[in-house]
Design goal:
With 341 residues, the chain is α/β, with parallel strands linked by helices. The protein folds into two domains: 258 residues, TIM Barrel; 67 residues, Alpha-Beta Complex (Type Iii Antifreeze Protein Isoform Hplc 12). It has 13 helices and ten strands. The strands form two sheets. An eight-stranded parallel β-sheet has the order 3-2-1-8-7-6-5-4. A two-stranded antiparallel sheet has the order 9-10.
């Protein structure tokens, strides 16, 4: 079982502040994530000035309906210089930089930065020009499948392949595009379904309010986990409330790594080295329940199963009954085959 690739999704939780973005990098690096991921976009290229915010964005921003999605996003853009600064800071902190592009110009920009992994967000999976541009790079591609039916996922895969992406470079992420996602809407088995349907590796992009679902996803075969995190859930912004705080991110990474170890054995049902030692302590062996004379025939009332388990196994119970004792045996004594005739 190869290590799960853990993407700590900073997203726009920097609130447009480069110093906050660096603090998010610190948190992701300390937690042990493999990547810290941001978002790259030009607001004018992805949304009209009249577009309303999503319901979850309104709810997560204190029910502020007056602000447009355009206005909200404009404040969350990262400049070209900011990208270079954050990449350098990631190198300093020994964590890999990643960002999701939301428009064609931003895709080219990320490519110019030398990114070797591209993340296709759920909202772009039906954007053919976008898929073609990324597909032409033939790099590793991670495709989020929120809001999708199987047919749409298949069409996106075909578009990437036709543009030049080797199928072996594609990983599908099961995802529910709702922030936060209710447990009843997680549908985690769908991750395995799309993996089998398209014969591709799978992962999970999580938007629930905890860490148990991504950990469970790893147990079910997720090769990539993506999870939003923040410095403080109470901060103002569209994604903070549905994100993990630093201590939760650290706990999630630790939980995933523990699950990897727990699932690393081949799967044969055999006792471990420590279990073999504990057999003597935990299992029982046949003892006598009362004083016995030499030559006495053993009945069931004469016997009791007691720890430790270093004598005759109680599985031999009926092979002991009916035999004669070869000596006097005191109550509570462990029987050996030499005591029997």
């Amino acid at each position: 079982m190869r290590p799960t690739l853990i993407i700590a999704e900073a997203g726009v939780n920097h609130n447009g502040d480069i110093s906050l973005a660096k603090k998010l990098i610190d948190v992701a690096a300390e937690a042990g994530a493999d990547y810290v991921k941001f978002q790259t976009f030009k607001t004018e290229k992805i949304v009209t000035p009249a577009a309303k915010k999503a319901d979850y964005q309104i709810q997560n921003m204190n029910n502020n309906e007056s602000e447009s999605q355009f206005s909200m996003l404009k404040k969350l853009e990262l400049s070209v210089d900011a990208h270079h600064e954050l990449i350098a800071y990631c190198e300093q902190k020994n964590i890999r930089f990643l960002s999701t592009a939301f428009d064609l110009e931003s895709v080219d920009f990320l490519k110019s930065l030398g990114l070797e992994l591209f993340k296709i967000p759920s909202g772009e999976i039906t954007n053919l020009p976008y898929l073609q541009k990324i597909g032409a790079f033939n790099t590793k591609v991670v495709v989020s499948t929120g809001m999708c039916v199987a047919e749409e996922i298949g069409e996106a895969i075909i578009a990437l392949e036709k543009a030049g992406t080797n199928r072996n470079n594609i990983t599908l992420l099961h995802c529910t595009t709702d922030y936060p996602t209710n447990m009843k809407d997680v549908n985690l088995k769908a991750m395995q379904t799309i993996g089998k349907l398209f014969n591709l590796p799978v992962g999970y992009s999580d938007h629930t309010l905890g860490i148990e679902v991504p950990i469970a996803a790893v147990a079910l075969g997720a090769q990539i986990i993506e999870k939003h995190f923040t410095l403080d859930k109470k901060m103002d912004g569209p994604d903070h409330k549905a994100s993990l705080e630093p201590h939760e991110l650290k706990a999630m990474v630790k939980g995933i790594r523990n699950i990897e170890v727990a699932m690393s054995a081949a799967g044969a049902k055999v006792p471990t080295e420590n279990e073999n030692k504990n057999k003597l302590v935990a299992r029982k062996s046949i003892h006598v329940s009362k004083d016995l004379k030499s030559g006495e025939i053993i009945t069931e009332k004469c016997l009791i199963a007691l720890r430790p388990g270093d004598g005759i196994s109680p599985m031999e119970w009926y092979n002991v009954i009916g035999k004669k004792t070869t000596r006097e045996i005191e109550a509570g004594t462990k029987i050996t085959w030499e005591d029997l005739d």
